[in-house]
Specification:
about 190 residues; alpha/beta; 6 strands; globular
Amino acid sequence: MKQLALLGHGVVGSGVCDILASDGALLAQRSGCEFAVTHILTRRKRTGDRRFTLDFCDIERDPEVEIVIEVMGGLTPAYDYVRRALCAGKHVVTANKELMAEKGGELLALAQRHGVRLLCEASVGGGIPILGPMRHSLTANRFTALRGVLNGTTNYILSSMHAQGLSFSAALQRAQALGYAEADPTAD
C-alpha cells in the first residue's frame, strides 16, 4: 500500500480523490500496487475527516507518506512544499505548469540528488501523455523544438468557440464555471 498526500483539494484535488476512490481497484490491478490518500493539505480547516490538515509538516514528517501530489497551482506556497517533500525523500507528482516553468530545472535536479522522482506530465497539455513518449518511445529522434497549444484550458475554450460558436468571453466564463480555468485566467 502506497500512502499518498494531496496538496490542494479544489477542482483538481477533489477529482484526484474521486478517481482514486472510484477506480482504486482498477488502478491496483493495472499497477500492482494499492494507493491510499492519507493526508490532504487545505487552506481552511475541515472537520469530519482526519486526513485533512492545515500543516504541511504533518506530511513532511510522516515517514509512511511516499508520494506527494501537488495540485495547488501557482508558485507560492507550492514551490516550498514541493522542495521540502523532495528533500524529505518523497516522490512528487505535480500538475502545476507555473511551478514547472519557473522552477522545474531546479526541482528536477533536487529530486535526482535525493533519489526520488518528480513527475510533471500532468502540467503539460492537460495531462496528454507527451513527455513520457518523447523520453521513452522516441529516444532515437532528435527534437530541436516543440511548439503548439499544449494547454487544456485553451483547448477547451478554442473547441467551444469553434463547435458551439461561442464568443471568447462566453467560452472563458463557461470554462471558469466548470473549474477548467482559474478565476484569474492570465496564466491559462
